[in-house]
């Protein structure tokens, strides 16, 4: 079953108010409004695209060890997934799909990392709950996400909803800015040039992991020549 098929099935149950979430229709309407406004804003058009130079960065892994994009790129191409956090079920399903695809990434010499604004404690929880064999890096204040054009500020009415639902982003992220990244997936070649970019302001839509394989093969061929 494809990742998007799984996401669509979860979304249908969630929006139907089924257990364990039992979400009322009024909550769904607010979420739909926020997504529609973010889509209409055109924010996704301002993100980095294939052919752009990727910003370099150093972020900490869940154990507090610094991880450098330059170091990773010295070994091969790099796959990056920006996601919202351990509290987001769509993100967790994406991480699981990326974990399943990890052997195919490694076959072509690529590294995989995920980046979220959450604290190290929550990144450790993500790794543990999703049985991940790749690192999740903490991006305080979504600064690296902003460098890729992904950061956005939640509207006040969505902040109110999240607060009422006890979805306390300031606590999850150790940051009271109420910002999130639009989910984004990037393949970066060893020269730092982005070979694949997929960003969707609708967080319920995610690309399939295998969609990146052509770009990864191209990156491998380029570095071999």
UniProtKB/TrEMBL annotation:
Q: Name one GO molecular function term.
A: thioredoxin peroxidase activity
Kindly give the InterPro entries that the UniProt entry links to this protein.
AhpC/TSA, Peroxiredoxin_BCP/PrxQ, Thioredoxin-like_sf, Thioredoxin_domain
Which SUPFAM superfamilies does its entry note?
Thioredoxin-like
Q: Give the span(s) annotated as Disordered.
A: 205-225
EC number, UniProt record: 1.11.1.24
Q: Name one GO biological process term.
A: cellular response to oxidative stress
Catalysed reaction equations from the record? a hydroperoxide + [thioredoxin]-dithiol = an alcohol + [thioredoxin]-disulfide + H2O
Write down the Gene3D superfamilies for this protein, in alphabetical order.
Glutaredoxin
**Superkingdom classification of source:** Bacteria
Query: What GO cellular-component annotations does this UniProt entry give?
Result: cytoplasm
A Pfam family name for this chain? AhpC-TSA
Q: Where is the Thioredoxin domain?
A: 48-221
State the UniProt keywords alphabetically: Antioxidant, Disulfide bond, Oxidoreductase, Peroxidase, Redox-active center
The UniProt entry's sequence similarity note says: Belongs to the peroxiredoxin family. BCP/PrxQ subfamily.
What does the protein in this record do? Answer: Thiol-specific peroxidase that catalyzes the reduction of hydrogen peroxide and organic hydroperoxides to water and alcohols, respectively. Plays a role in cell protection against oxidative stress by detoxifying peroxides and as sensor of hydrogen peroxide-mediated signaling events.
Q: Which PANTHER family match?
A: SLL1159 PROTEIN (PTHR42801:SF7), THIOREDOXIN-DEPENDENT PEROXIDE REDUCTASE (PTHR42801)
What protein name applies here? thioredoxin-dependent peroxiredoxin
């Amino acid at each position: 079953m494809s990742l998007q098929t799984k996401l669509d099935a979860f979304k249908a149950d969630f929006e139907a108010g089924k257990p364990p979430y039992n979400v009322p229709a009024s909550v769904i309407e607010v979420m739909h409004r926020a997504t529609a406004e973010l889509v209409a804003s055109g924010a996704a058009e301002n993100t980095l695209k294939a052919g752009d130079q990727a910003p370099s960065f150093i972020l900490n892994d869940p154990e507090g060890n610094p991880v450098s994009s330059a170091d990773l790129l010295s070994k091969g191409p790099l796959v990056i997934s920006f996601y919202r956090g351990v509290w987001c079920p769509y993100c967790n399903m994406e991480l699981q799909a990326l974990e399943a695809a990890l052997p195919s990434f490694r076959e072509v010499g690529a590294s995989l990392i995920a980046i979220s604004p959450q604290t190290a404690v929550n990144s450790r929880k993500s790794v543990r709950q999703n049985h991940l064999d790749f690192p999740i890096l903490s991006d305080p204040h979504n600064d690296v996400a902003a460098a890729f054009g992904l950061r956005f500020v939640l509207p006040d009415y969505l902040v109110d909803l999240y607060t009422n639902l006890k979805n306390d982003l300031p606590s999850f992220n150790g940051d009271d800015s109420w910002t999130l990244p639009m989910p984004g997936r990037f393949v970066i070649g060893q020269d730092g040039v982005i070979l694949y970019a997929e960003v969707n302001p609708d967080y319920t839509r995610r690309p399939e992991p295998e969609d990146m394989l052509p770009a990864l093969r191209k990156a491998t061929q380029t570095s071999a020549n």
